[in-house]
Amino acid sequence: MHTRVRAPALTALAAAVLFGAATPANKTLLTDLPPFQLAGLLYLAGALVMLPSVLRSGSGLSKLDQTNRRRLLGSVVAGGMIAPVLLLLGLRLASAASVSLLLNLEMVATAILGALVFSEPLGRRGWIGATGVVVAGAILSGGAWPGIMAAVLVAGACIGWALDNHLTALIDGITPMVSTFWKGAVAGSVNLALGMATAPLSATPRVIAAALLIGALAYGVSIVLYIRAAQQLGAVRSQAIFASAPFIGAALSYGLLGDPLAPSAMIAAALMVGSACLLFDGTHAHPHRHPVVVHTHSHRHDDAHHDHDHPNLPDGARHTHEHRHDERVHAHPHWPDLHHRHGHERR
To answer: What would the pLDDT profile of 20-33 be if each residue is shown by its tens digit?
Structure first.
């Protein structure tokens, strides 16, 4: 592997390890912290990691119009408040290994929401891959009530994070670190307050410190590392590496928590790997039109979409500022990113 690729690939893998390890770690914390309190502590810690970036660049909220503020609010509610609580409720009912593998449903939910709501194409291979992950989730549920209920709760969490993914991708005007800060700060505070309103915070300082550490690493440092990798590798390759997080979480659960390695789990894991590969095979090429737009986001000048001048700035250097796109019609392989959320005719 070339050095220019190896370093960011390892960065993306480190992000996946930190995020994947959160599931077995949270399983142990649920014996001392109820879901609302634990979710609040995790996301508040993630926000604290983002605080230095926010202090350097500013909160950015004054730059957001009403549409983008609604998107940020939706991201906070769906991805910061509802999803983590549903995940932790499911984690109380099932093994950490099973829940780790079920988190692959987020990828499916993101793809299906994109196809049905956000005008993102999902070809035949993508639908097959989505079906495969759902079938694997059914296998993991075991057909018994606690397993089924856990699968439903985790699926609900994945739907919340899928909606969060789409809304965050549409937010124009603030950096991912700033939006992550607000999500963690607001959602973490609300969930912690709700948790303390229903039950006193009786966990020991050691348990609280452990929750804050896990939140800082899994929901703070992990995101920073992922963004850094994505800026160098691109979204597709970095996301493909980060998709290993559920399997890393399952492996840690088997190795550290002693979760039983059932044959059904091995079958489900193999099915999920193959299905994930189909889901990631999502690029397509066709002539498409970019309308005139003025917006603000992180970008570089070697992507065929940003050709404004920056003296002494290399094309591959990523930076953020308000810029204008003139109308353009061209064809190239692309994913439904910020510049390619166009609709497609049904044929």
So the answer is: 999 999 999 999 99
